[in-house]
From TrEMBL:
Residues 200-235 are annotated as: Disordered. SMART domains: FCD (SM00895), HTH_GNTR (SM00345). It comes from Streptomyces californicus. Residues 2-69 form the HTH gntR-type domain. InterPro entries: GntR_C, TF_FadR/GntR_C, Tscrpt_reg_HTH_GntR, WH-like_DNA-bd_sf, WH_DNA-bd_sf. Keywords: DNA-binding, Transcription, Transcription regulation. It comes from the Bacteria. This is GntR family transcriptional regulator. The keyword Transcription regulation applies. One of its GO terms (molecular function) is DNA binding. The keyword Transcription applies.
């Protein structure tokens, strides 16, 4: 079965984010190929991609290893996300389609419903889908790629606490969608900036002992084995 490198890349990235491959651990092609049931060729390509994304580093005499980001790097990434998400919302107000609006409104309704029920795990997934859809609505592939990478890396470096009043958070997202629907880029940007700044305050470093720790911008205001998804892969 010919498994594409991007599927292997996704599987390895997911395991890095989940902690199955801890920071500093070696990533040998042979062991990874055996773990994910693929040949070494897509593993090699996947490691190159993950190195370009900052998840993997190549060390002399050790080869590919999981990167060990500092707390300062983690804080910088979170700050970049709080700056880029408002840009995405503004672009979405100018370029969104009716299909994007339909999905965004549906996610807000589901989020508000789950918030009333206190279903935290569902809220995390819905929040991720919301921000992914909003980024897609920006019509900017480059921005989508950056935001996607930032979401992966912040999920790797931080845990996210649920706000005391999650319904308020979803009301903020609903207001962003209203601004996007009206084509009001300035209001969409402002509302998204306020929401992103507030959301950053719920991020906690997974490793609080990391060197270079500094206060994140907002505070100034399953170790499981993932298989490669081979659905649709042609033998």
């Amino acid at each position: 079965m010919r498994v594409p490198a991007h599927s292997v890349c996704t599987a390895i990235r997911d395991d890095i984010v989940s902690g199955a491959h801890p920071p500093g651990s070696r990533l040998t092609e042979e062991l990874l190929a055996r773990r994910y049931g693929v040949s070494r060729v897509p593993v090699r390509e996947a490691l190159r991609t993950l190195e370009s994304e900052g998840f993997v580093v190549t060390r002399r005499h050790a080869g590919a290893c999981v990167a060990e980001p500092t707390a300062r790097e983690a804080a910088d990434l979170l700050e970049m996300r709080t700056l880029l998400e408002p840009l995405g919302a503004a672009r979405a107000a100018e370029r969104r389609s009716e299909a994007h609006l339909k999905v965004l409104r549906g996610l807000v309704r589901l989020g508000q419903e789950r918030a009333r029920r206190g279903e935290a795990e569902d809220l995390r997934a819905l929040g991720g889908w919301f921000h992914e859809t909003l980024a897609q609505a920006s019509g900017s592939p480059g921005l989508v790629a950056l935001l996607t990478q930032l979401r992966h890396k912040t999920a790797w470096m931080y845990t996210v606490e649920q706000p005391a009043r999650p319904a308020d958070s979803w009301a903020e997202l609903g207001a962003i969608v209203d601004a996007v629907a009206r084509g009001d880029a300035d209001r969409a940007r402002a509302l998204s900036a306020r929401h992103a700044e507030r959301a950053a305050g719920f991020h906690r470093l997974r490793r609080p002992d990391l060197p270079g720790r500094r206060t994140p911008p907002a505070a100034r205001v399953r170790s499981s084995q993932h298989g490669v998804n081979t659905a649709g892969v042609r033998p």
